[in-house]
């Protein structure tokens, strides 16, 4: 069940993150900063409302999702984002739209490791986290 995602998670590893950020159009300066930051994720659930909080250095992004309603939020780099969350068994699938760009983030926990697969423009990055 997706409830396994609830908790505080510390960064463990990242794969193909630079190529993913390049596909997003993130500047080299911001990519350089991101390479040295190990994010923490906090996920909570209250009734049918999920909250995802990402802390990276001195930046924090928090989004609350109720059901499958689209919400307006702001990314860690200050972009306005329209986001939607879907729970599919043990997966939490978030779809974000930034202008014409679509981003899909699939979150699961397998063997105690929280894995986030992030895809855009045919490029996938995988981040892994361990419970704090």
From TrEMBL:
Pfam families registered for this protein in UniProt: Lipocalin_7
Listed InterPro entries: Calycin (IPR012674), ILBP (IPR031259)
Highest taxon listed in the record's lineage: Eukaryota
Coiled-coil ranges (or none): none
GO MF terms held by the record: lipid binding
Gene3D superfamilies: 2.40.128.20
Matches recorded under CDD domains: FABP
Similarity comment: family membership: Belongs to the calycin superfamily. Fatty-acid binding protein (FABP) family.
Entry protein name: Uncharacterized protein
Lineage: Eukaryota, Metazoa, Spiralia, Lophotrochozoa, Mollusca
């Amino acid at each position: 069940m997706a409830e396994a995602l609830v908790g505080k998670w510390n960064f463990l590893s990242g794969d193909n993150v630079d190529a993913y950020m390049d596909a997003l159009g993130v500047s080299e300066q911001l990519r350089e900063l991101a390479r040295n930051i190990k994010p923490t994720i906090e996920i909570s659930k209250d009734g049918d409302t999920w909250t995802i909080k990402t802390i990276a250095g001195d930046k924090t992004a928090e989004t609350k999702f109720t059901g499958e309603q689209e919400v307006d939020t702001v990314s860690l780099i200050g972009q306005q984002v329209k986001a939607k969350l879907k729970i599919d068994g043990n997966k939490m699938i978030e779809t974000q739209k930034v202008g014409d760009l679509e981003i899909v983030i699939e979150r699961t926990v397998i063997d105690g490791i929280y894995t986030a697969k992030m895809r855009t423009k045919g490029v996938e990055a995988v981040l892994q986290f361990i419970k704090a």
